[in-house]
Specification:
This protein has 336 residues and is mainly alpha-helical. It has two domains: 221 residues, HUPs (Rossmann fold); 81 residues, Tyrosyl-Transfer RNA Synthetase (Orthogonal Bundle), CATH 1.10.240. It is built from 13 helices and five strands. The strands form two sheets. A three-stranded parallel beta sheet has the order 1-2-3, sandwiched between helices. A two-stranded parallel ribbon has the order 4-5. Strand 4, helix 8 and strand 5 form a beta-alpha-beta unit. Bound molecules: tryptophan. The site of tryptophan has 12 residues, from strand 1 and helix 7.
Length: 336
C-alpha cells in the first residue's frame, strides 16, 4: 500500500443530508474512482465516542454512514475505506504524538475554547465543566489519522482548517525531535463546492434543523420540498432564480443546459407549486436508486462489515510497518 494522496475522515453522527452530499460526499466519491490516486476515507468512530456514549447508537450511526457512502457510489475497491477503530496503530500513534504535543497548542483549539466560553457565559464555577479529555485532545487523534498514512492532501470543511495547522505543527515537532518521518499534509478547502440552502433559506445545517435528509421515503422527501420557503409572487409573475432556495438546490444537481432552461422558466413566471413538484421529481430520480441500495445495505450489516474489514486490511499494509518505524525512532523496539 502507498501513502495517501488524499485522506479524509467522516464523522459518524447524525443522518447525512443533501448539504453533506453536495459539499463532501459527492466530491469524495469522484476522487474515490480515480485509478491514478490513492485515497483513504474512514469512519471516525473514535472521534464520535467523544460525543456519543450510547453503544447501540454508536454502532448504528457508523453503519448508516458507511451504507450512505457506499450507496452513493464510493468506489471502495479502488480507494481505501475503513473504520478508524479497526486500525489500532492510529490510537498507538495518538499517544506518541500526545507526548510531543504542547498543551498550549490544544488550549488554543476553537472547539475547546468555544466550550470554555460557553461555561463562562453561563457563569459556571468550573470553566472546564462537561469537557472531557477526549474533546480537549481531539486534534491529536485527528493528527494521528492523517500522519499514520502520511497523507499529502486532506480535503475538509473550513471549520477543520485549524486542525490541519495543528497536525503540521505536531508533525514538525516529531520530525525535529526524532527523525523526519512525516510529510506535512496540505489542507484542501474547496471554495467551489456548493453550499446548499436549507428549508428556511439559511445554509442547510443540522444546527439549524433545516435539512433534507438524503434517504427519506419518497413521500417524506416530497413533503419536505413542499415546505421550502418561497415568496408570495403568484403564477405568471417573473421570479428571481438567484435569491430562490428551490433554484439553488436545483442548480446543485442539474446540468448546465437544464439550469439555463430553468432560469428562463423563472423569468416566464413558473408557479411555486410547479417548481416544487419538478424539484421533487428531479431529486427523487437521482436518489431513487441509492435509496434502495441504502435500505438493502442497512438490512445486511454483514455486507458493510465485509467491505470495512477489507478496507482495514489494505490500510494496515501501510500502518503496521510505518508504526514500527515510528516506534523505533522513539526508542521502542519490538522484543523477540
Ligand atoms: N474532524 C473531522 C470533522 O469533524 C473529521 C475527521 C476526523 C477528519 N479525523 C480526520 C477529517 C482526519 C480529515 C482528516 O469533519
Amino acid at each position: 500500500m502507498k501513502n495517501a494522496d488524499f485522506l479524509t475522515g467522516i464523522t459518524t453522527t447524525g443522518t447525512p443530508h443533501l448539504g453533506n452530499y453536495v459539499g463532501a460526499i459527492r466530491p469524495a466519491v469522484e476522487t474515490s474512482k480515480d485509478p491514478g490516486l490513492v485515497s483513504y476515507y474512514f469512519l471516525a468512530d473514535y472521534h464520535s465516542l467523544i460525543k456519543n456514549h450510547d453503544p447501540k447508537l454508536l454502532r448504528q450511526s457508523a453503519l448508516e454512514i458507511a451504507a450512505a457512502w457506499i450507496a452513493l457510489g464510493l468506489d471502495y475497491k479502488n480507494c481505501v475505506f475503513y473504520r478508524q477503530s479497526d486500525i489500532p496503530e492510529i490510537t498507538e500513534l495518538t499517544w506518541i504524538l500526545t507526548s510531543v504535543c504542547a498543551k498550549g497548542l490544544m488550549n488554543r483549539a476553537h472547539a475547546y475554547k468555544a466550550a470554555v466560553d460557553e461555561n463562562e457565559n453561563i457563569k459556571s464555577k468550573d470553566p472546564d465543566k462537561g469537557i472531557t479529555m477526549g474533546l480537549f485532545s481531539y486534534p491529536i487523534l485527528m493528527a494521528a489519522d492523517i500522519l499514520m498514512f502520511n497523507a499529502a492532501k486532506v480535503p475538509v470543511g473550513k471549520d477543520q482548517v485549524q486542525h490541519l495547522e495543528m497536525t503540521r505543527d505536531i508533525a514538525s515537532r516529531f520530525n525535529h525531535l526524532y527523525k523526519k518521518l512525516f510529510h506535512l499534509p496540505e489542507v484542501v478547502v474547496d471554495e467551489n463546492t456548493a453550499v446548499l440552502s436549507g428549508l428556511d433559506g439559511r445554509k442547510m445545517s443540522k444546527s439549524y434543523q433545516n435539512t433534507i435528509p438524503l434517504f427519506e421515503t419518497e413521500k417524506r422527501l416530497r413533503k419536505l420540498i413542499m415546505k421550502i420557503t418561497t415568496n408570495s409572487l403568484g403564477p405568471d409573475e417573473p421570479k428571481d432564480p438567484e435569491s430562490c432556495t428551490l433554484f439553488s438546490i436545483y442548480k446543485a444537481f442539474a446540468k448546465p443546459d437544464e439550469i439555463k432552461q430553468m432560469e428562463n422558466r423563472y423569468k416566464e413566471g413558473i408557479a411555486w407549486g410547479t417548481m416544487k413538484q419538478e424539484l421533487f421529481e428531479y431529486l427523487n430520480n437521482i436518489l431513487k436508486q441509492p435509496r434502495q441500495e441504502y435500505e438493502k445495505l442497512v438490512q445486511n450489516a454483514g455486507d458493510i462489515d465485509a467491505i470495512l474489514i477489507q478496507g482495514a486490511k489494505k490500510a494496515r499494509e501501510y500502518s503496521v510497518p510505518f508504526l514500527d518505524k515510528i516506534r523505533k525512532a522513539v526508542g521502542i523496539q519490538s522484543l523477540g
